[in-house]
Task: structure prediction
Amino acid sequence: MKSVKVPALEMFMHEAIPLAKAMGVGVEVSDEQALVLTAPKEQNRNSLNTAFGGSLVSLATLAGYGVVWELMRNETEREKVEWRIVIKESRAAYRRPVIGDLRAICERPAKAAIEEFKASLARYGKAKLKLKARVIEGGETAVEVNAAYVVSR
Result:
């Protein structure tokens, strides 16, 4: 049987955020463009046999959190500093039900936004990053979450 390496982000989420483990959250893709998280419908369904709204917004929120976590993990490796990540605000728009497994995509912020974020972090010891994550099914956006994440020492 082939061994599968579990991404550090997935291990962190399962250990530090119990909801992520209960939802069965997994990392599908983590590259320079985006972070994609998945979760099985069976663990996240409602009484109508569609994905539960709370699970949808949670997965999208976790995708944004993961983008920030990976950014800070790279910084921490260089500077050996412990950072705290919290969500400051979020807004969700539910566009359509999700029938199958859940899949959330959060695109990486633009380089200019990352540089501004890093400058604030260096100067003030905290910074805010606004991200948009979408739950996608069949190529269409089912849920869109706009959120602001704050990082501090």
